[in-house]
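[Backbone geometry]
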Amino acid sequence: MEKIPMTPAGFAALEAELKNRQQVERPRIINAISEARAHGDLSENAEYHSAKEQQSLNEGRIAELEDKLSRAEVIDITKLSGTKVKFGATVTLLDEDTEEEKSYQIVGDMEADVKLGRISISSPIARALIGKDVGDTVEVISPGGARSYEIIKVRFA
């Protein structure tokens, strides 16, 4: 069984979603199903079919979350240090074409959000950065084409 790396914050977010789906969504959907059943003929009852579909989607997501949480390898990034890029690092890069600085934190697949500056460990840019040091130049081949970045700073916070 393959472990899934994630930060403590990512783990907590998944736990919170699981708790919400089990303790809030599940009872709400069960009530909606029983209410729709009370309306009679189920074969043509759109409310019933909608509630059953919601139940299926919710239960599927619960199973997915339970699987991810059971395989989670929580990495406490506050205990990491150094100048080499590894999981959890926040890396400041200089785009060698545009001279623009960008910062990304390398996180697990489930907690990635580019808008918040968190990229997945399995993304092309993170794979290119892992193991590199401050001052190194990396070339990233992505769907948008090849880009060169210089690693300016690596921090763990």
Q: What stands out?
A: The helical segments are 8-37, 46-70, 124-129. The two ends are 29 Å apart (CA to CA).
